[in-house]
Amino acid sequence: MVKSKPSRNKNFRFDPLKSENFPAESDLKGYLRSTSEREREIGCIAVANMKSIPDISYVKLIVERISDASLSVQLSALQAAISLTQEYSGDLLRLGVLNLIDPIINQYFLVDPILPNSKQEEQLIITIVQTTLYLLESLCQENETFIQSLQNSPIIQECINKIIAKNASYISPCLDLLNAFSEENAQACDLIGTFFNNLYSLVTDGDLTPDNKMNIVLLISNFCIVKNQTQLLGEYVIFPCGKSLQVDVYSDLMNHVIPVINEENNGNALEIWNNGVKAQEISLEIITNLLAVEDEEVPIGNQFMNNALINDIMRAANGFTQEFGQNLEAFPEILSKVFELQCAAFYCVQNLVLNTDHLVQTVGAQNFWDFLFGQIRKIADFIEEDVDCKENVEELLDIISQVLLCFGKKYGNAFANKVSYIQEICTLINQLPIPIASNLIAALSVCAQEELTVDQARMIVNTLLFCATKGDMNMKCEVLNAFFDIFNDERYDSVLIELRVIGLMKSGSNLVFRHAAKLEDEELKERCGEALENLVEFIKYKEAHGVN
Q: Which Gene3D superfamilies match (predicted)?
């Protein structure tokens, strides 16, 4: 089963300070405990920006800062806590994070708050409440036990109240929290059903931004799936999703946003565009979920797929022209948004490939294969450049390469001349990061189903040997599997002899066996075990046929 990747809120992996101003790791605990308000704030911001923390003691220090006397420190601590939920949700809960955010919720969210006269302080408190709701959302996404503890909380009913009242300050975080809370949650969906008409009336309300409207549609989609109300999906879910995806946001960006972006009176063009992009991401997430299946089931969303909708999904996946992309390098935040939208589209495309035949029927197998390579070429250029959104680039290339792999395996016989891509795949494997290269190694096996020239076989062997030395254990598994798939018969034995492949396999196998035995990932360990068992048999077979 392939589900959508959650549209996680990324606002809290921010860098309002230059990274060189962050304290050294050895000084960070001192900053978090400092008597200086500014140093405590900087310490929290530094933790929010760390990809991983050294140990759990940092979680404890962040939790302590949530009740800091300074509102600015509180806010930064909440933002840091959000960044920690993916790895440390259980620890945050165990350390009492909920007890510390209760006063924020009780004083400023569940009642009409008495806010300070200072506009700056008032906005800071509103931002703290918003961030607290985003923290609750992240905990819902990462911790099922926490969802149970929220079932009868007044926070959930108040979120619905704020949404129906179109509360400008809180509608977005309330929708995000409710969507995380209601996924596969029957009790939550009963509550949504009670307010179904009130909620859907907001989808056509001119006061709401497109992203908030689509977040309401996501809420309705959760209700329809969990409560088995699939007859409502066409009108209340698919129709607004399709309408959202009809907008060509890339054309809007080129023609209406970039030309005025530096003008003072630009009518909030960038903000309006961002809202439209977010709406499309949510629409794609909804469709991706409706196309997810277990085993051999037909996905719920299969009945709603048509050529127009698939073409709109493909336009979102296509992104911008290479020439215009180069112009966007001066606007890294916009470039990042574009890549995020393309990622959402390709997660959807992946489910179309795996679980339906609609995409091939609409686009054609050869056209789609060519399209995927065109995307990889276009996006790979950004790997070589010093762009601020390299993480987005790598995620996008990873999902495109996954789609390429599963499409090749499913439809490899539906298009011809696959061998013409071998040289390009080998070049990309040497150029791209290991996770992406691993997917492309598997795609080599698909391309090598056709007859290879000696030069092509030699190129593949050299590429695989290079990857065997530079890659992680997952890549080594893919290398071995590619050798088994491509070189199992005798056609290319002369190349194996010329490049002394069997000798290299024998000399390197003991080291690989030792590394595999130490793996903690059980699934990867099992895959490596199977690959190494096959390696022993492959070597025996080749030696028996005179390949040494």
A: Leucine-rich Repeat Variant (1.25.10.10)
